[in-house]
Design brief:
alpha/beta, about 290 residues, 6-stranded parallel beta sheet, globular, 9 helices, about 45% helix
Length: about 290
Amino acid sequence: MKRWEHLWLFALLLTVLTMGFAAGQQCTEVFEQAVETGSREGITLPIIMYHSFLKDPARWGKYVIPPDQFEEDLVFLKEKGYEAITVSDLIAYVEHGTPLPDKPVMITIDDGYYNNYLYAYPILQKLGMKAVISPIAGCSDQYTQSGETNAYYSHIKWNEAAQMVASGLVELQNHSYDMHSHGDGRKGARRMKGESPEAYREVLEDDLTRAHRTISERTGQSPTAFTYPFGGISAESGEVVRKLGYKASFSCEEGINRITRDAECLYLLKRYNRPDQISTADFFQKIIE
């Protein structure tokens, strides 16, 4: 073979290899772009907000439903293919890309009434569903000390909370130590009229720190999210929540959440309050597919 033929074959081979490399690089870039786009777009997450469960029809209303209704809700979600997740699951997805179920849903229960343990917890066990409970730490301290148990008004004692945590079905989050009231001029965790931003930050930080320490010491689980009492939010509260290391927070605003790989999406998560006097199918009609 003549020398010019060798050179021609070498040039042809080089061209083919170059084209192949370029095509492979282009495929890689397309794949990476698709992954990045998927990460930005994220997943849809409905969050349901419950409070209290009682068998007495006279007590049913906006924040109190019968235990049977709670069970019917969870069965409905399972039949639709939804899987209950926790805040820890969300953080793992955002920070590490840990996969979430195809159809995730979050069950949250605010205030930590004793009836959560008495009625809701056995239903969670029966169905193998997870829930996020945000107890008012000061109330749980009070009833742990008194030992009083009443489905209508008392709150979970810390040994009951620890039992639920140990089951792997319940995750506890911070709902303040003593900022869940209207009567002292402050609505929940909001800044009071005339209170300086500096004084407010100090009060909020002290309360959340006390609640965090109490929950951690009493149950062995450290909260990673703050659940705003009554959904009351001030301009400075988000700053304090972040300073204390909380990676998520719950509001009382209704809406569907879009969870992406952007950590900011975990703050002020929206939730749908579950009232009485509406069927399971009608309630979820506007929330899930």
